[in-house]
Design a protein that fits this description.
It is a single chain. By secondary structure, this protein is an all-beta fold. The chain has one domain (about 10-90): Alpha-Beta Complex (Outer Surface Protein A, domain 3). The chain contains no helices and eight strands. Strands 1-2-3-4-5-6-7-8 form an eight-stranded antiparallel sheet, with no helix packed on it. A hairpin with a 5-residue loop joins strand 5 (about 55-60) and strand 6. The termini are far apart.
Length: about 90
Amino acid sequence: MNAEGTPTVSFLDLEGKERLGMNISEDGTPKIYLSDLEGKVRLAMAIPENGVPSIDFFNPEGKSRLIMGIFEDGNPFLGFYGPDGKAVRALP
């Protein structure tokens, strides 16, 4: 359990930095995240309450740059974001 009381598992590198983490948020969303050598989350996977799985890629500043997943109806989505966090292109 983490400080918020939700289930959490963390894997640290040899220098004690978290590199892989898994948790279940208060709303029941399971998440897996991978961090870079600096300990910054660079990739996260989740399946929130609405059941729409997604993978989110972050730049070194923590801004989401690419999100992909599958809508509830089974169709895929892909979103590209600029450094300012604004959508640049989305498919479909």
